Amino acid sequence: MGKVRFQMLLDEEQKRTLEMLQRDTKIPIAEIIRDAIIGLIADYKKKRKLLAVVGVCKGGPNDLADWHDKYLYGMKKK
Fold first, then answer.
1. Taking residues 50-56, what's their average pLDDT?
2. Cα–Cα distance, 17 to 10 (Å, whole number)
3. What mean pLDDT value characterizes the chain?
4. What's the pTM?
5. Is pLDDT of 76 > 70?
6. 37 within a domain of the structure (yes/no)
7. Contact 77, 69 (CB under 8 A)
């Protein structure tokens, strides 16, 4: 996949911290930022996938949220 240029502003503390991280890890700042964005996008997609199932099931017991272990595993609520 090709790369596109993206310009952004950081505050001074963010820049200093990124520079320290770069010195400690020997990883270029651009790569650190790209890796952070990849992780953020992966988390977003995971959460979005989980939220997609909300409301899929209609009906069911009124106490399902409180007693889900009982219904799933036959366990009593502690």
1. 76
2. 11
3. 88
4. 0.62
5. no
6. yes
7. yes
Sign of CA dihedral 62, 64, 72, 45: positive
State the DSSP code for 57.
S
Taking the C-alpha atoms of residue 74 and residue 67, their distance in angstroms, rounded to an integer, is 10
Residue 56 lies in a domain: yes
Measuring CA to CA, how many Å separate 77 from each of 10, 42, 61? Answer: 48, 33, 15
**What's the rounded Cα separation, in Å, for the pair 48 and 39?**
14
Instruction: Tell me how many domains the chain contains.
Output: 1
Tokens (6 digits) for 1: 């996949």
Contact assessment for residue 19 and residue 29, using Cβ atoms and an 8 Å cutoff: yes
What digits encode the pLDDT tens for the residues 11-21? 999 999 999 99
* Model confidence band, residue 43 (pLDDT cutoffs 50, 70, 90): very high
- Could you say which DSSP state residue 62 is in? T
